[in-house]
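Changelog-adjacent note: as of this version, every example in the card shows the full chain rather than a window. The one below runs 471 residues end to end.
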Amino acid sequence: MELKANAFAQAATIALEDIQLQTALRRGTHNAYSARLRAMSEVSDADALRQQARAAKLRALRNLPELLERFEANIVQRGATVLWAEDGEACNRLVVEIARQHAVQRVVKSKSMATEEINLNQALEAAGLSVIETDLGEYIVQLDGDSPSHIVMPIMHKTREQVRDLFAEKLGMAPSDDPEQLTAFARQKLREAFLSAEMGITGANFLIAETGTVAIVTNEGNGRMCSSLPPVHVVIAGIEKVIESVADFATLVQLLARSATGQRLTSYVHLMGGAAGPDDPDGPSHMYVILLDNGRSRIRETEYAEALACIRCGACLNACPVYQKVGGHAYGWVYSGPIGAVITPLLEGIANAAPLPYASSLCGACRTACPVAIDIPGMLLRLRADLVAEGEAAPALSAGIAAWARAMATPLLYELGGAAARLATRAMASANGQVRHLPIPLLGNWTQNRDFPPFAPKSFRQLWRERQCES
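Full-length structure tokens:
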């Protein structure tokens, strides 16, 4: 996916003016947020469970090299091949080589953010392979030449009517608004793809070092189909997906389901530990696990290492007032919402995603919703500081902050500025006492959609001095 994070402001403006998108976002985020609250209310001590999950992920990050080696040793014993990819280009090259080695022409994929991150589909298609996404949302996005707008719900930005029209245009389906008919039609098409594919590609929700097991959770069963029907199964997982034990998995998986979809547990939980043996009735003849770094080792050595604890549930997106209004595409890359505003600058370079750390009100709703209590607001603040330190902050913002600092350090300037602001806003006030428009570039944007209250007749400093005189 092409990086367009620096166009956030323009993309957000377009999103805010899209009435159909606003309807879809309002419904989608509200339903997901409410479902999470209901699911978490069933847990007797949700905060204790979150802290237990957080401890498991942070412990895994501290011991990452050792756990990755243990995972590799255990899964190799059961017939899998483990490969290591330093970056996206290396990973794509490995997958193409595997496909050629096994004479693969048709590939089916389950939903994977890591493969979106490295543009795997484009690399496979450039190598002459047919690639079909099998998660229903991802399949719809692929048909439309679109990109996912949510970590868990790829088509949150689309309405049922848009899907109806897409199926009629691309697949020749008789127009229908019935979700069951739309789903059944897509299922028939995907079954054909499953049965003809020579390779299945999946991501991984967790890699369990203790047992050498790949864990995938889905609600559609497509992960199971991709990993068991084709003779070749390739897992692509970021190195941060490794955890220590089955006990840690048991903790994390119940929080993942509750946070992502409001379920106690997803419909399907797949635990895969290697290629099929000679006595196994089904399963892939060949299993490959590609461990993708792509900047993760570098992040692990910084103050932002906590960002790697993310379990990709999407809860922070549903809770974020900014995401609720602009959706995922405005963020300009694979990862959107609050966690995307952290991860994208870290993976792609802060200069290439400079607006994202500012795409937040710092209200803390993301941290409250996160199942592993990642301090997203704190990291966004640190990224803002990094932007200023590297000279990447917006010139108008830097100038404004510098002027404010000068005024705050000079009592006379502060008093004169306050007096001027009081006079100006009172002069511009409308009949209702509010300022309807400020003829200043930055503040003028604020008053396009809201009123600005005039400054109080007296400043706090004046009132305080008067109070001291009276006493």
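Structural remarks: The longest helix spans residues 19-41.
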